[in-house]
Design a protein that fits this description.
- By secondary structure, this protein is mostly helical.
- The protein is built from four helices and no strands.
Length: 100
């Protein structure tokens, strides 16, 4: 089953940019900097949450939470993604896991 699915997705690799024709290019150019500029507030938030957990949790006798349970970095390994899509998957996995 995985082999069939992989072949199906691999065949779609060369057609992955077709969806771009459905969205006006100006919209993408305007939205992209705002989406990726959020990395700075996310990193600051991540630092604050980690600091809070490292200081407060031991004082209250609570166990530290494992980040691996929330931040999943696995979708960028899909073989049919181009480098830009892989970078987007890394960013999205980090942001969604952090906010979860």
């Amino acid at each position: 089953m995985d082999n069939v699915w992989s072949r199906f997705q691999y065949g779609r690799k060369y057609k992955s940019w077709r969806w771009m024709n459905l969205i006006p290019q100006g919209t993408i150019l305007v939205a992209t900097p705002f989406i990726y500029a959020m990395i700075i507030p996310l990193l600051v938030f991540d630092l604050c949450v980690e600091l809070y957990q490292r200081v407060v949790f031991p004082l209250l006798g609570l166990p530290l939470l494992s980040r691996q349970e929330y931040i999943r970095q696995d979708r960028h390994r899909l073989p049919y993604l181009n480098p830009f899509q892989k970078a987007g998957c890394l960013y999205c996995g980090y942001a969604n896991g952090l906010l979860q």
